[in-house]
Amino acid sequence: MSLPKKCILCALVGFSIFTQNKLVAQSETEPKAEIFRAKNLLFAEFLFPSINYSVNYGRIFYQKEKLKISGGAGFTFLYQSANEPIHQGYWVPVYLAEISAFYGKSEHNLELGIGYYMYRQKIFSFDEDFPQNIKEESYWGKTIIPRIGYRYQKPEGGLFFRVGYTPTIGFGSLDETAEKVNFIPFGAGISLGLSF
Questions:
Q1: Residue 19 in 3-state DSSP?
Q2: Which residues have CB under 8 Å from 124's CB, separation 6+?
Q3: DSSP type of residue 131
């Protein structure tokens, strides 16, 4: 092999070793995503998806690098104002569930999720065959709530906070074969609690 070819070969080998070392050094200095050791959450939620407020429990059940997936459930009551003489005011229990994915290296995360709540609702109608001419029928109201927002949660536990855009898609009527669909494009949700 001639001298110029040896010089070119040595230069290429040296350049490849130099760039490989440089790439390894850069990847070592880039911070890795932290592992969330505090996987449980207790929090209160205001506005949507809880209608007004709710008490919730959540848990991170999957995490890999920057991606974490969590699920949760909650409970609240919704007050139906009195409509005299048809009915007096009453409380409706509301059950909530949600699954969400959040993405980030540490405590600041982008969150995408979907929630669901259902409640036992009543409808009143005039009917001569019933006492006081009022017929009462119950049905399950159901609502789906997508979420996109910001989530603050420390990997080691402590303060938990999130805020998000939460439009609602509601389903519910007495006739299950002809459910009425309501879409509300405006909505926001705020959560505040502790992770442990």
A1: helix
A2: 83, 86, 87, 134, 135, 136, 137
A3: G
CA–CA separation, 146 vs 103, rounded Å?
16
Asked whether 37 and 63 are in contact (CB, 8 A), the reply is no
> By the 8 A CB rule, do 192 and 44 touch?
yes
Q: Are 170 and 142 in contact (CB under 8 A)?
A: yes
Residue appearing with tokens 């009425």: 180
27-42 tens-digit pLDDT: 455 678 889 999 999 9
Provide the strand spans (E) within 48-156: 53-64, 67-80, 90-103, 108-126, 134-153
Residue-wise pLDDT for 91-123, tens only, equals 889 999 999 999 999 999 999 999 999 988 777
Q: How far apart are CA 124 and CA 186, in angstroms?
A: 29
Q: How many residues does the chain have?
A: 196
For residue 196, the SS3 value is: coil
Helices (H) and strands (E) in the chain, counts: 1, 10
Which two three-digit tokens encode residue 139?
């049905």
Can you tell me whether residue 175 is helix, strand or coil?
A: coil
Q: What is the pTM of this model?
A: 0.72
